[in-house]
Design brief:
Layout lengths: L15 E4 L4 H12 L4 E4 L5 H7 L7 E3 L8 H13 L4 E6 L1 H14 L3 E5 L10 E6 L2 E6 L7 E4 L9 H18 L7 H23 L4 H21 L3 H13 L3 H16 L4 H11 L4 H12 L15 H8 L13 H13 L3 H7 L2
Parallel strand pairs: 1-8, 2-3, 2-4, 4-5, 5-8
Antiparallel strand pairs: 6-7
Helix pairs in contact: 3-4, 5-6, 5-7, 5-9, 6-7, 6-10, 8-9, 8-12, 9-13, 9-14, 10-11, 12-13
The structure holds nicotinamide-adenine-dinucleotide (NAD).
Nicotinamide-adenine-dinucleotide binds next to helix 4, strand 6, helix 5 and helix 9.
Length: 363
């Protein structure tokens, strides 16, 4: 058996990516023409109606579906599937954040209708074959190539309206994909390389957005980083960070991007000492001496989300969150995770305590 790091089994997902600021309408029209679609359904939340109209300006639209809800409740998925089937839809154009892409994926999962995704946040769902559905208080996820959008159209101009706070949280969600990809179950040198470049691009783009939200350069870097982060995540799989955030979102309905932004420094502080190569790579990508220092100095610049208590998580939720998340955390995590250290992590993240202090005291 080889112990070389250059021995791996890597899958690259097949997808066309059209990147260009101010070119969404042109690129969507090209993608729809290329696919030969006749009955297009646009999925876009009511808040993103104007952005969607612009992106779909060059195509004929058979139906617009706007009933988008975070974390894709099963009922919303069933309604969208029925709407698509009733109208003989042969292509979905989704315009919006991860919630909108997620609804399009739910339709694709059962109907096989292809998706052209036009993302307007840095969540990255458009570049993965992962779907998610919420039933009762549990979020189910799965992997199915039918949900991978066939084409992604990135236009940084569509993200100019994303408020700075949400841009920061969403961009840190992208950085979380990158960091977790370094030690997720299928981590390999290819997705580590993409993750490192994703961190570099997001760490450059986000401060530019925070300083000047209408500057396209920062927005472009963030979208490019978001794409790389999602490609790395799709290949490497979910690590400790994603398993925790998945429970916080699905069981406690915490907002996705802010939850990722808040939890990331605790997972990085916990794992970094046990994963020196990954930590060195993350540090280099931040241009910092150490991984946590790099993340924390970026978070400070961005005034990033700090405490889960600010997003509706309470002390009374910790025991259930730890119990649900613990069995889902991969056994391959660089540092063993126990009920006690997971509880300590959630307790520190609830209050926004120092990640370093938490990690040093965790057993
Ligand atoms: P979101 O899609 O819920 O959007 C957050 C808010 O931003 C919404 O109010 C939305 O209307 C608004 N918004 C979006 N784009 C905007 C713009 N350009 N200007 C102004 N406002 C805008 O949040 P998200 O963080 O993008 O996505 C979260 C969801 O995506 C979660 O359900 C998560 O599980 C899923 N997700 C899935 C994957 C995957 O691989 N399957 C990856 C990442 C995220």
């Amino acid at each position: 058996m080889s112990h070389s790091p250059l021995a791996f089994d890597h899958v690259t997902l097949g997808q066309r990516v059209l990147f260009g600021s101010g070119r969404a309408a042109e690129h969507v029209a090209a993608a729809v023409g290329h696919l030969g679609a006749k009955r297009v359904m646009v999925i876009a939340a009511a808040q993103e109606a104007e952005i969607a109209q612009g992106a779909a300006a060059g195509i004929e639209v058979a139906y617009v579906h706007s009933d988008v809800v975070m974390h894709v409740p099963a009922k919303a998925a069933d309604d969208a599937r029925a709407a698509a089937e009733e109208r003989g839809i042969d292509l979905i154009v989704s315009v919006g954040g991860g919630s909108t892409t997620g609804l399009a994926k739910a339709v694709a999962l059962t109907t096989g209708i292809p998706i052209v995704a036009v993302p307007t946040t840095y969540a990255g769902s458009e570049a993965t074959n992962v779907w998610g559905l919420t039933e009762g208080a549990r979020k189910r996820t799965g992997v199915d190539d039918r949900v991978l959008p066939v084409t992604v159209v990135y236009d940084a101009k569509l993200t100019l309206s994303l408020p700075v706070g949400l841009s920061v949280a969403s961009g840190l969600n992208g950085i979380a994909h990158c960091v977790d990809s370094m030690w997720a179950p299928r981590a390999d040198p290819i997705n580590s390389a993409m993750a490192a470049e994703g961190i570099r691009a997001l760490a450059a783009g986000l401060p530019a957005i925070a300083t000047e939200p209408s500057d396209l350069t920062g927005r472009e870097l963030a979208l490019y980083g978001a794409y790389l982060s999602a490609v790395a995540f799709a290949s490497a799989g979910s690590g400790m960070h994603h398993k925790i955030c998945h429970v916080l979102g699905g069981t406690f309905n915490l907002p996705h991007a802010q939850t990722h932004a808040t939890v990331l420094p605790y997972v990085l502080a916990f794992n970094a000492p046990a994963a020196p190569e990954a930590a060195a790579r993350i540090a280099a990508a931040f241009g910092a001496a150490d991984a946590l220092g790099g993340l924390q100095s970026l978070r400070e610049k961005l005034d990033a989300p700090k405490a889960l208590a600010d997003y509706g998580f309470t002390e009374g939720d910790i025991a259930e969150a730890a119990a649900v998340a613990l069995p889902a955390i991969p056994a391959s995590n660089p540092r063993p995770v126990t009920a006690a250290n997971l509880t300590a992590l959630l307790t520190a993240a609830l209050a926004g305590e120092s990640p370093q202090t938490f990690a040093e005291n965790a057993d």
